[in-house]
Structures are given as structure tokens and as C-alpha cells.
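SECTION: protein entry
WANTED: fold as C-alpha cells:
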Amino acid sequence: IGGLFLICLYSFCVFLVVSMFLNTLTPKFYVALTGTSSLISGLILIFEWWYFRKYGTSFIEQVSVSHLRPLLGGVDSSSPSNSNASNGEADSSRQSVSECKVWRNPLNLFRGAEYNRYTWVTGREPLTYYDMNLSAQDHQTFFTCDSDHLRPADAIMQKAWRERNPQARISAAHEALELEDCATAYILLAEEEATTIMEAERLFKQALKAGEGCYRRSQQLQHHGTQYEAQHRRDTNVLVYIKRRLAMCSRKLGRTREAVKMMRDLMKEFPLLSMFNIHENLLESLLELQNYADVQAVLAKYDDISLPKSATICYTAALLKARAVSDKFSPEAASRRGLSTAEMNAVEAIHRAVEFNPHVPKYLLEMKSLILPPEHILKRGDSEAIAYAFFHLQHWKRVEGALNLLHCTWEGTVFHEVSVYPKKELPFFILFTAGLCSFTAMLALLTHQFPELMGVFAKAFLSTLFAPLNFIMEKVESILPSSLWHQLTRI
């Protein structure tokens, strides 16, 4: 009890000192205080806005997530993505992936061999900082692990994936290759330094040789501990990525049948890695071969209610239904005699596709101009429509009457409102600092204009703030005998 009394006494003394200090302050002090607070919060706001415009994320949020959360015992946001790659957790992988809104574009172009061509010709960047920042996060998630510091080349590449400067990343990859054959270093050079698809394919073949060796070694050691399991998961991601990009190189170089075989083998070897959406690459290649029976077989497997939908799945299903009737379809004849069963199925398939993503028809019908597809897409958004139409418009044109049927039916579809990528809401800390800056600036202005009145308000506010402490002290004084309280004050 004596300790409690001492604490109360100490708090009361502190309160008296603070009250005496505040009573001696002049209005000029409040003006200086609020003005300085407004200036500091304004500088923070400007920096946050600049950082958000350049990198697509909040600096304060990034620092808190990257550095403060681990210190406070938080869970790293990349851990769900790492768990998705585990072959033994297919169900949890499917569930966590289906909840994602922004996905990596399965058909994304090569930065060095394709995206950079646009930059060379126009002098403009084809990708947003937000898109490239998401790619950097993907690379760190799939191509690194906690044990990278044990291998010098992997340690260099772990830093390389975090670099924002492309030349710094490329230099780091060359530095890693000087130490040993590093699969991820070859991947970076194939993606960003290679200026042609053939050169990228050559580098990916070198990456495949190095990646297969690492995969075999980690496969033998994966059950020896969590560290080896993480290495094997990383090596699996690297190997799947390399084989997939090699298949895409074959597709771009005109070796479509070879690309189809590589994709089928990859899906057979790693059947649980559905998060990579390799089946969408396979569908596009099969459509190029006009192998519609195989396209239907792939759709029957992946057009499942338990799997996340995509524009590729929905619109490819609509294209196959439209192909059966589009060559003889006539709006005038259909209005006179009514729709046949096959035509009704085609129209319903188009309606389902348009309901999933209503942005696609305007690109397929060339009512909106196409641009280079982004590296990430928002499901049911404009970016997914761009990515789909960029690669699949030729397949719709190849089916006689398919675009005519789409044009006649899509506008009647009732669809929901969807978001447009890459539109991004302002981070909380920008709004918070803007409000703080405005509030403190208003206080500074009011204090300068009405010093006496604001002084009264400040004292009233502080009195209200310390009212609970005053109440406690009054109760203590009423309970304790006056002689005991006198002795405690003397102590």
C-alpha cells in the first residue's frame, strides 16, 4: 500500500510541475509549437507522396512491415506465398491463391527482349513502378530463401532481386556467375539483359542445367530439416519458372508443338503447382495450333468451380461454343426464327464470360486500343482484359463469325462494377499525415490570430486530460488520514 501511495504522490508532484510549467507558457510558444508540428508533418506528407508516386507504396508502411513487424513477432507477408509452393499443401495453396486479387500475368513478356523495345522506340516506360515492385516481391518470394547466405552466389542474388536499378541487378548477376553457375543469375540476365528471344532462350538453357543440379541435391536433403525443405521449395520454384519460360521461348520462336510438349511435361511433373497457371500458356498454344479438341479437354479439367476463374478460361470456353455456330449466325435470322440450342449455349457462354470480365469485348472488337500487357493483372479488371486480348485476339479472328457473334450479344449482358488496374488507393499514412498537417496548421493559425482564446482552450484541454488523475488524488486525500498524508509528503 505504501508503494501505491508513493506512486500516487509522485504522479501528483509531476502533475503540479507540469501545470506550473504550462501556466508560465506564453501564446507565442503555442504558435511556435503548432507551426513546427505543421511544418514537420508537411515535410513527411511531401516525402510520402513522392515515394508513393515513384514506388507505388508507402515508405512508413514498408518500413513498418519489413523491419518493425519481425521485431514485434509478426508474420512475414511472404510466408503464405512460400507455403503455396509446397507440394504437400495443395488444398491450402489453392485456397490462399484464390483469395488473391492481383495475379502475375501468366503470359508476361520478357523485359529485355520485348518490353525494352518499346522503350527504345518511344522513350517511354511500358511498366508502372507499382507493377515492377510487385515483380520484385515475387522474385524475392520464389527465388530466395533463408539459407542463401550459405552460398555466396545466392547471397549476391538475394541482394540483386532487391535492387531497383536494372543495371545494378545485371551487374550483380554477372558477379554471381563469376563465383559459380547460379540458376537465378541466368534467369535475371535472360529476363532483363537479353535483347532477343533467342538470346534469352540460350541463357535459360544454361539456367536449366544449373537449376536441375541444385534441384536434385536439395531433393535428396529436403527431409533433413526445415532449412533443407526451404531450399528444396526454392529450387522447385526456380526449376518450374525456367522450364515454363523455355516453353514460352519456343512458342515465340514458332516452335509451338515443342512448346505444347514442354508445358504438358511440366504440368505432369509438378501437378500441384497450379498457382503458376501454366494451363493458360497451354491453352494459348493449343489455340495457335487450332487443336480445339485438346483445348476442350484442358478446359474440362480447369474450368472447375473449386478453381479460380480467369478471362482466359471463360472466354476460351465462349470461343469454342461460338465456333460451332458463328460461321452461319445471322442476327436477322435469329430474331425471326429464334435461337437454336447451340446458339443459345454460345450466347450463354459469352454472357458468362462478359459477366466475369466486361472489359474484354471492347478490346476484342477493337473499340479500345491495345497496349503492352502488364506483368501483373487484376482479376476481372481492365489489365486482365488487355493481357487476354493481346494474345488471344488473333484466335478470335481466326474463327469465322466469332467476333460478329460477340458483338451482337455482349452488350445485353448485365454485369457488376469492377476495379481497373493499376488504380491504387492512397496509403493510410499519406491520408494520416495530410490530416495531421492540416490540423496542426489550423491550430497554428488560430493561435496566432487569437492567442488569449487559444490559451484558454489549451489549458481547458489539459485540465480535462488530467481530470481522472485529479479525481484519484482527491479520493486518496479523502481516504488517508491527514497525519499519514503529511508524513508521506515529507518522505
